[in-house]
Write a structure and sequence with these properties.
alpha/beta; 7 helices
């Protein structure tokens, strides 16, 4: 379900690192109740943008509104879930112990723990130490922790890296189920094959958003059914003198 007001609105955002711009005068919006993919090669600024949206990145200038409030506002803490590239749960606790801890921090009922364990498919591993889980299981444990507060916006930084195709499929099914229930998802990836799973795509290169399209719109614009080839065509059209690294 889509709503009129965007879940995220970014205007004239500039972020610098070491005096050099990482993001420069960036503008974009994320529609509420959708799965929006943030795609682009490693190092293009995706993670920096996501950190800025959740309010943990220092910015030089610009404005970011998240669910009608300034990014990082205290009132957003329970309304926004954030899953980083690295696992954000404690390795020396079991999955359930992690969720019990975060549930207390958030003031969430214990019954919610079983709900999120089922949602991410970790019920059989609830009593296992996180440090002994596979990489994919640790990623799902982090996702479970982010889902405890039933966030309105879920920001996921490369959530499917290193996962096998079956598990990737399962996670994307979960993402779409969450969106169908009203959650907005912003999912970053450098794998273009995942683009077709999104409602809308934001394509980044060198700190800039160079395309904001639906998957079908991107195919039409790029003149190919192959989204990877479309991305390369858009890069060449927007920066004809740039070297394209695959």
């Amino acid at each position: 379900m889509q709503h009129s007001a965007p879940a995220v609105q970014v205007e004239q955002l500039t972020v610098e690192r070491g005096g050099a711009p990482v993001l420069a005068d960036l503008a974009l919006s994320v529609a509420a109740g959708t799965v929006t993919g943030l795609l682009g090669p490693s190092g293009c600024g995706k993670s920096t943008l996501l950190r800025a949206i959740v309010g943990v990145q220092q910015v030089r200038s610009g404005r970011i509104d998240v669910l009608g409030l300034a990014a990082g506002a205290p009132a957003l803490r329970r309304r926004v879930g954030y899953v980083t590239q690295e696992p954000s749960v404690y390795a020396d606790l079991t999955v359930r112990e992690n969720l019990e801890f975060f549930a207390r921090v958030l003031g969430v009922a214990r019954s919610r723990i079983d709900e999120v364990l089922e949602l991410v498919g970790l019920e059989p591993h609830a009593g296992h130490l996180v440090g002994r889980l596979s990489g994919g299981q640790r990623s799902r444990a982090s996702l479970a922790a982010a889902l405890l507060g039933e966030p309105e916006l879920l920001v996921l930084d490369e959530p499917t890296v290193g996962l096998d195709p079956v598990l990737r499929e399962s996670l994307w099914d979960t993402f779409h189920a969450l969106a169908a229930a009203g959650t907005t998802l912003l999912v970053s990836s450098h794998v273009m094959e995942e683009a077709s799973r999104c409602d809308r795509l934001l394509l980044m290169r060198a700190g800039q958003v160079i395309a904001d399209e639906t998957p079908d719109g991107l195919r039409r614009r790029g003149g190919s059914p192959d989204l990877d080839q479309c991305f390369l065509a858009i890069i060449r059209a927007s920066q004809p003198d740039a070297e394209v690294v695959r």
